[in-house]
Design brief:
Layout (H helix, E strand, L loop, with lengths): L2 E5 L4 H12 L3 E5 L18 E4 L15 E4 L6 H6 L1 H22 L2 E7 L26 H21 L3 E6 L2 E2 L10 H10 L4 E4 L5 E3 L1 E2 H12 L7 E3 L4 E3 H12 L5 E4 L14 H7 L7 H12 L1 H5 L3
Parallel strand pairs: 1-2, 1-4, 2-3, 4-5, 5-6, 6-11, 7-10, 8-13
Antiparallel strand pairs: 9-12
Helix pairs in contact: 1-6, 3-4, 5-7
The protein binds nicotinamide-adenine-dinucleotide (NAD).
The site of nicotinamide-adenine-dinucleotide has 29 residues, from α1, α3 and β5.
């Protein structure tokens, strides 16, 4: 039975990853200090092969048992969280990644870091292939997240090149599904919460900026496929179907049968204008591509999370 360590395992993506690894027969050690995640995401997991350790990975830490795979997901991830926690975001990307890479090195484990499409910043190349280096504002409010992830990628490659650690880098594009927090500020949970209450849907700017949304099940399948490959340089895992934010708002209204109107609000600083993964590489090396359409994913999110969880209290 392989053992996987999942940092950030009590978060949105991490909890789905823990479940899928358990389903595939792994023992899973979830390391999470619950900064932005929650015990509610993992308390239903009743499996003797699963353990949660409440550890802040910004401090040095050690896991005293054999580990085969390290999935390093711990980091504030939604704008609301990283704007509230700018230093913690930089520290988890730097110290937290150092400590976790060191652990992977000790155990000779395969290491996968969850990077992000935000390393491309406000892209000047569209769609974004892995070879594009990005266009990031290092000193804007979002820089704490974007640069932490860019540093973490550089660190990962340095551990690979200099220390021989078996590493992988996944660039995750916007992912959604059950267990997203209704007030985490990201577009899909915000629109669903507003639509399910027939409240105005708040679209930033004129809504012409684009995003590509990947259903969580597809994303997790991609992460595991990459971890189980021998690939070392970054790979985009996301859904290439691209929508404007206005199209997304209208689709959410349609799927929920809501009476909501659309309200336009000021655009946040450095909000990227476009976002669409080029997934040629993932198709070629992993045979991976997403299978769930936006409408289907929204329906599944509503069915599995339930309306109460999606409109939840602040
Ligand atoms: P999340 O906030 O739900 O999960 C992150 C988890 O990390 C939380 O459970 C949090 O408590 C934990 N954590 C944070 N700091 C920690 C620390 N110092 N020590 C231990 N645990 C800590 O976010 P998510 O959406 O599940 O994102 C998971 C990862 O995927 C992040 O690295 C994020 O950057 C990346 N990512 C996510 C998306 C997306 O659309 N969800 C897109 C791109 C990249």
């Amino acid at each position: 039975m392989p053992t996987s360590l999942v940092t950030g395992g009590a978060g949105f993506l991490g909890s789905h990853l823990c479940e899928e690894l358990l389903r595939r027969g792994h023992r899973v050690i979830c390391v999470d200090n619950l900064e932005t995640g929650s015990l509610a995401n993992i308390e239903h997991i009743r499996d003797r092969a699963f353990v949660h350790r409440n550890i802040d990975i910004i401090e040095p830490y050690f896991i005293d048992e054999q580990i085969d795979f390290v999935y390093h997901l711990a980091s504030p991830a939604s704008p609301i969280d990283y704007l509230r926690l700018p230093l913690a975001t930089l520290k988890v990307g730097s110290y937290g990644t150092h400590h976790t890479l060191g652990l992977a090195k000790f155990h000779r484990a395969r290491f996968l870091i969850a990077s992000t499409s935000e390393v491309y910043g406000d892209p000047q190349v569209h769609p974004q292939p892995e070879s594009y280096w990005g266009h990031v504002n290092p000193i804007g409010p979002r820089g704490v997240y974007d640069e932490a992830k860019r540093y973490a990628e550089a660190l990962t490659m340095a551990y690979h090149r200099q220390q021989g650690v078996d590493t992988a880098i996944v660039r995750i594009f916007n992912t959604y599904g059950p267990r997203m927090r209704p007030h985490d500020g990201r577009a899909i949970p915000t629109f669903l919460r507003q639509a399910l209450q027939d409240r105005p849907i708040t679209v930033f700017g004129d809504g012409s900026q684009t995003r590509s949304f990947c259903y969580v099940e597809d994303e997790i399948r991609g992460l595991i496929a990459l971890a189980e490959s021998g690939y070392h340089t970054p790979v985009n895992i996301g859904n290439p179907d691209e929508f404007t934010l206005l199209e997304l708002a209208k689709t959410v209204i349609d799927v929920t049968g809501s009476k909501s109107e659309i309200l336009f609000e000021a655009l946040p600083t450095d909000d990227p204008q476009v976002r669409q993964p080029d997934i040629t590489l993932a198709r070629e090396i992993l045979g991976w591509e997403p299978a769930v359409s936006l409408r289907e994913g929204l329906r599944r999110t509503i069915d599995q999370a339930g309306v109460e969880a999606l409109v939840g209290a602040v």
